[in-house]
Design a protein that fits this description.
This protein has three helices and eight strands, in the order H-E-E-H-E-E-E-E-E-E-H. The protein is of the alpha+beta class. It has one domain: Jelly Rolls (Sandwich), CATH 2.60.120.1140. The radius of gyration is 15 Å and the shape is globular. About 13% of the residues have low confidence.
């Protein structure tokens, strides 16, 4: 019974998300500048758009034709939970980096395929997820993004 309720709620969420964004109006995203030491010694700076509410997290990078170099999206939640993603209406492949509340990469999902509606589920509870263009950044588990994560969790 509980499984059926979850499926109904998920279906309602997906339908309502499609209706909200049917007109293709993107929410307005604030940006944050983060850095990370790529391969432990080469500092790399990223301009990340912040998806910090349900509307922004639902829309994400949908309907964009491309991304600028060194840019991506930072998904923020105040609580640490298992997170689910998909690539609906996303025009390019992405790497997803799952971060703990300190900004450390604890899990990586490489090469999520454009337009794929298969569920991508984190194996660990996380507060943050960073999406970057697939294959462009050799980030590893244990690498740490340097952003104002404590401020984002307030």
């Amino acid at each position: 019974m509980i499984k059926k309720i979850k499926i109904i709620l998920l279906g309602f969420f997906l339908i309502s998300t499609d209706l909200v964004f049917a007109e293709g109006k993107s929410p307005v995203f604030k940006q944050i500048l983060c850095s990370i030491n790529v391969k432990k010694n080469n500092p790399q700076k990223f301009s990340l758009e912040i998806a910090d509410n349900e509307q922004k997290r639902s829309y994400g990078l949908m309907n964009r034709k491309d991304m600028k170099p060194n840019s991506g999206m930072l998904f923020v939640w105040k609580d640490s939970q298992i997170r689910n993603f998909w690539m609906k209406n996303t025009h390019f492949n992405l790497d997803l980096f799952f971060l703990n509340k300190q900004g450390e990469i604890i899990e990586i999902y490489k090469n999520a395929k454009a337009f794929d509606e298969t569920n991508i589920k984190s194996q660990n509870k996380v507060n943050f997820v960073v999406e970057l263009k697939s294959g462009e950044y050799p980030l590893l588990i244990g690498d740490k993004f340097n952003c104002l994560f404590k401020e984002l969790l307030k």
